[in-house]
Amino acid sequence: MTRPVLDVRELTKVYGTGEATVHALRGVSLAVGRGDYVAIMGSSGSGKSTLMNILGALDVPTSGTYLLDGVDVSRLADRQLALARNRLIGFIFQAFNLIPRTTAVANVELPLAYAGVRPRERRRRAMAALELVGLADRARHEPNQLSGGQQQRVAVARALVTEPALLLADEPTGNLDSRSTEDVLEVFDQLSAAGRTIVLITHEPEVGDRAHRLIRLMDGRIVTDRRQRPAPVPAGRHSA
Ligand code: ADP
Ligand code: MG
How far apart are the CA of 162 and the centre of ligand 2, in A? Predict the structure, then answer.
């Protein structure tokens, strides 16, 4: 494997002190190569959200190291952490988290606005991202004029518009019916085929089945790590 997008070693996370101490992660090691598509499953309390928050640079581990695209995130101070997060990660949430009364295209443009991209370029890239998720014809719709599946596809477009190293999704189909779930999974399949790196958390077996690699957490440890489809071929020197 060339340099992994994610390289996590012996992560631990301890909450609280004394009698209230909780060992949420007990030594998680994990490398995810560029272009891989990984699902993390596990029962409630197994440490999924704790791990996602650390992978997403929203929280820091108690011990262990975490390299994100070669950057040692575990050593960054808050401000640098926020910068790394914006530059390297596209988040997708269970509840979509779109801005209400704001068009789909404006929602997708938002992270580019934060990144200082000029308006014309923003609009062009946001439209391309909406095209990619099959929603170019809904660009002027506001979230409440879109179905749940469409809202989540807008959220996927927003996550990928900055070209992040990693797409990180926490229960992305948790609020969707089976039809919309399928639509979103098709978008993930397509992004994966295009070389995007995807890590998601899910409770749903049919979502886990679609990923190329399935990891199970139990009591703060990885108990299985199974490849379901071949690892992506590392990009050659001459490809992007
Ligand atoms: P999951 O997402 O798999 O349900 P979590 O990562 O949320 O699991 O939680 C793992 C363990 O850590 C649980 O026992 C939970 O109660 C505990 N925990 C999570 N967050 C906190 C917190 N902020 N303070 C104390 N304990 C926590
Ligand atoms: Mg959770």
Answer: 26
Q: What is the pLDDT of residue 223?
A: 98
Both tokens of 116, joined, read 């200082």
pLDDT of residue 240: 45
Residue from 147, 70, 146, 157 nearest 110 by CA = 157
- The best mutation among 11, 12, 13, 15 to test binding of ligand 1, ranked by most ligand atoms within 8 Å of the C-beta, falls on 15
Q: Which atom of ligand 1 is nearest to the CA of 46?
A: 3
Letter for the amino acid at 39? A
Task: Kindly state if the Cβ of 232 falls inside 6 Å of ligand 1.
Answer: no
What per-residue confidence (pLDDT) applies to 1?
59
**For residue 47, how far is its CA from the centre of ligand 2 (angstroms)?**
7
Tokens found for residue 45? 């309390």
pLDDT < 50: residue spans in the chain: 239-240
Q: Is 114 in the pocket of ligand 1 (CB under 6 A)?
A: no
The CA 44 to ligand 2 mean position distance, Å, reads 6
Nearest CA to ligand 1 atom 23: 15
The pLDDT tens digits of the residues spanning 168-179 come to 999 999 999 999
Are the beta carbons of 212 and 228 closer than 8 angstroms? yes
pTM for this entry: 0.92
**H helices within the chain, ranges in order?**
48-55, 78-88, 104-114, 119-132, 148-160, 178-193, 205-210
Task: Give the closest residue to 11 by CA, choosing from 31, 32, 25.
Answer: 25
15 in ligand 1 pocket by Cβ < 6 Å?
yes
In this structure, which ligand is nearest to the CA of 43?
1
Q: What is residue 59's predicted lDDT score, i.e. its pLDDT?
A: 86
